[in-house]
C-alpha cells in the first residue's frame, strides 16, 4: 500500500511550508538530553 505522504510529496513541495511550520512549532533549546528535535517536513 505504501506511504501516502510519499505520493503527495511528488506533487507538493513540503520545503515551502518549512518557514510556516517552524514559526508554528517554535521550540526552545532545552539543553542536552531527551529526544532529538522532530523535523515537521520529513
Task: Describe the 3D structure.
The protein is mainly alpha-helical. The longest helix is centred in the middle third of the chain and has 7 residues, at 18-24. It starts with a helix and ends in an 18-residue tail after the last helix. It has helices at 4-9, 18-24. The mean pLDDT is 82. It is 31% helix and 0% strand. The protein is flat and about 40 Å long.
- The global form is flat
What count of helical segments does DSSP give? 2
How much of the residues is beta strand, in percent?
Answer: under 5%
In angstroms, what is the radius of gyration?
14 Å
Return the average pLDDT rounded to an integer.
Answer: 82
Sheet of most strands: none
Q: How far apart are the termini?
A: 19 Å
List keywords for this structure.
mainly alpha; single chain; 42 residues
Q: How do the helices and strands line up, and which of them pair or pack?
A:
Layout: H1 4-9, H2 18-24
Concise synopsis of the structure shown:
The protein is 31% helix and 0% strand. It has two helices and no strands.
Amino acid at each position: 500500500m505504501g506511504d501516502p505522504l510519499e505520493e503527495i510529496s511528488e506533487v507538493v513541495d513540503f520545503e515551502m511550508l518549512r518557514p510556516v511550520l517552524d514559526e508554528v512549532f517554535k521550540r526552545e533549546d532545552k539543553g542536552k538530553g531527551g529526544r532529538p528535535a522532530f523535523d515537521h517536513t520529513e
